[in-house]
């Protein structure tokens, strides 16, 4: 039912924003404090500078959520987790199974937990480690930047062009718009040997990327989740 309603509102052009919503809701998880994570708290965090531009995808999903709620109440956390998976599949990416039953938080998560766009590879690896995610999962999840206007291939096709472009390092050239490609944190990944190993693997094998992205996505949307007791 959720998938059906999400499909009505999430077009290819809107997919990148919806996927970003998942990362910004789940990305607040910290293992040490066992707090934050995939709990729908993003709806209280939309004024934060790092969440600029996310009001639109929330508005899009609000419509779908209203339709589902009328038949059977659904949490924001479940709604966003399923919507992100659908956004990937609408753009020809892997099919990602998402289990349901997450409870929503009634308050915002602590600030300052999302990885900053200016982090180097060491900082990124440390940040993801605190969220229980490995270097390989960091590289696989970064592949989500293949969607949207970051300059990695077709903005509405979910494929492995992110990794192919990273290996070309187009920002090193002085030509026009090449400096606009990716975030500083994307560029930092290629300069790290551990990350580079995975970038090369995914650039050469899209199926491997799809498999690893799917597994990392499932782990991400389950991180920090509080579940309805069965």
UniProtKB/TrEMBL annotation:
EC identifiers of the protein: 1.11.1.11
Name of the protein this chain belongs to: L-ascorbate peroxidase
Single GO biological process annotation from the record: response to reactive oxygen species
Cofactor(s), by name: heme b
GO molecular-function terms, A-Z: heme binding; L-ascorbate peroxidase activity; metal ion binding
Organism the protein comes from: Corymbia citriodora subsp. variegata
Keyword line: Heme, Iron, Metal-binding, Oxidoreductase, Peroxidase
Entry similarity comment: Belongs to the peroxidase family. Ascorbate peroxidase subfamily.
Transmembrane segments: none
Residues in Plant heme peroxidase family profile domain copies: 15-230
Enzyme class: oxidoreductase
One Pfam family it belongs to: peroxidase
């Amino acid at each position: 039912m959720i998938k059906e309603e999400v499909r009505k509102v999430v077009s290819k052009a809107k997919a990148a924003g919806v996927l970003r919503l998942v990362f910004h809701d789940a990305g607040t998880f910290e293992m040490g404090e066992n707090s934050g994570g995939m709990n729908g708290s993003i709806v209280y965090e939309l004024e934060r500078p790092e969440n600029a531009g996310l009001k639109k995808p929330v508005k899009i999903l609000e419509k779908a959520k209203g339709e589902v709620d009328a038949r059977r109440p659904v949490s924001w956390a479940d709604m966003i987790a399923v919507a992100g998976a659908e956004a990937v599949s609408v753009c020809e990416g892997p099919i990602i199974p998402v289990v349901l039953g997450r409870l929503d938080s009634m308050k915002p998560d602590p600030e300052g937990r999302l990885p900053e766009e200016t982090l180097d590879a060491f900082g990124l690896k440390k940040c993801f480690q605190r969220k229980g995610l490995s270097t390989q999962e960091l590289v696989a999840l970064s592949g989500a930047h293949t969607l949207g206007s970051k300059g990695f291939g077709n903005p509405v096709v979910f494929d492995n062009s992110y990794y192919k472009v990273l290996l070309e390092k187009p920002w090193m050239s002085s030509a026009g718009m090449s400096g606009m490609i990716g975030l500083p944190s994307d560029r930092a990944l290629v300069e790290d040997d551990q990350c580079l190993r995975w970038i090369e693997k995914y650039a050469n094998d899209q199926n491997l990327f799809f498999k690893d992205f799917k597994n990392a996505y499932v782990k991400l949307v389950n991180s920090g989740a509080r579940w309805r007791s069965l």
